[in-house]
UniProtKB/TrEMBL annotation:
All copies of domain HTH crp-type, residue ranges: 151-225
Pfam families, per the entry: cNMP_binding, HTH_Crp_2
Family annotation (SUPFAM superfamilies): cAMP-binding domain-like (SSF51206), Winged helix' DNA-binding domain (SSF46785)
UniProt superkingdom: Bacteria
Keyword DNA repair recorded: no
An MF annotation (GO) of this entry: DNA binding
Gene3D superfamilies, alphabetized: Jelly Rolls, Winged helix-like DNA-binding domain superfamily/Winged helix DNA-binding domain
Lineage: Bacteria, Pseudomonadati, Pseudomonadota, Alphaproteobacteria, Caulobacterales
Protein's name in the database: CRP-like cAMP-binding protein
Keywords: DNA-binding, Transcription, Transcription regulation
Gene Ontology terms: biological process: regulation of DNA-templated transcription
Organism of provenance: Brevundimonas alba
């Protein structure tokens, strides 16, 4: 799996709020504390006390809750450049579990904790960027609620693909036409509340209508404007910076 660079981590936060040289140095130092976990690892357990935030450097994960009978609800896909356990609550505990879908590499972002707790008194630019990154998580949760509650299967698949593309592009892991995606149709079914058969039919429809190719580890957009219109993507994915 491709790994984001320290420069990409800085760029993502700088796109949210202007970072000063000392801010950049703090963020650039985070990837140096990396640990690798195999697929299926629980990176953060529901109700676990959050000691430090972590930055996902490579691989994909998701935030979920699992019912006693094994049924699972996916709240969000976590991709490189995202933080795990970024929280402002006092004595925070995880409200959901974060589980590795693929092998992943994470970095301890303990060095950012004083900035988070400082309330913007020091490193105000970095504090604002981290605050907005947390708002991104909230907005993605709302987008997921809309997908599962009001969108058709076709709209759900397209909306998620466009969202992932936009997020990966900010850390240099997507090009104009698409991105590498390790999710299987079974994973997409779990994330979107659909059957595997329904996901397969939707993928075939997108290919047949010349809108997108999803398969072989890559998503390729063939008609981006049509896809945005079809999924109401621009209407549901407002600039997150305005949500603070």
């Amino acid at each position: 799996m491709r790994e984001i660079t320290a420069e990409a981590a800085v760029h993502r936060l700088h796109s949210l709020s202007e970072l000063q040289p000392d801010d950049r140095a703090l963020v650039a130092g985070v990837p140096g504390r990396a640990v690798t976990y195999p697929a299926g690892s629980v990176l953060l357990q529901q109700q676990q006390a959050i000691v430090n935030p972590h930055l996902l450097l490579s691989g994909w994960a998701w935030r979920t809750r699992t019912l006693p009978n094994g049924r699972q609800q996916v709240f969000a896909i976590v991709v490189p450049g995202d933080f795990i356990g970024l929280c402002w609550r006092p004595k925070p505990r995880a409200l959901s579990s974060t589980i590795a879908i693929t092998a992943v590499k994470t970095a301890n972002a303990q060095s950012l904790w004083p900035v988070i707790r400082g309330g913007g008194q020091e490193n105000p630019g970095l504090w604002e960027a981290l605050t907005l990154a947390s708002r991104h998580d909230e907005m993605r949760l709302l987008d997921q609620v809309v997908r599962l509650g009001r969108q058709t299967a076709l709209e759900r698949v397209v909306s998620l693909m466009l969202e992932l593309h936009a997020r990966l592009k900010t850390v240099g892991l997507a090009d104009e036409r698409g991105f590498e995606m390790p999710l299987t149709q079974e994973d997409l079914a779990a994330a979107l509340g659909l059957s595997v058969v329904h996901v397969n039919r939707t993928v075939q429809q997108l290919r047949r209508e010349g809108l997108a190719e999803i398969g072989s580890g890559r998503v390729e957009f063939l008609a981006v404007d049509q896809l945005k219109t079809l999924s109401s993507f621009e209407a549901t994915a407002q600039p997150y910076a305005e949500a603070i």
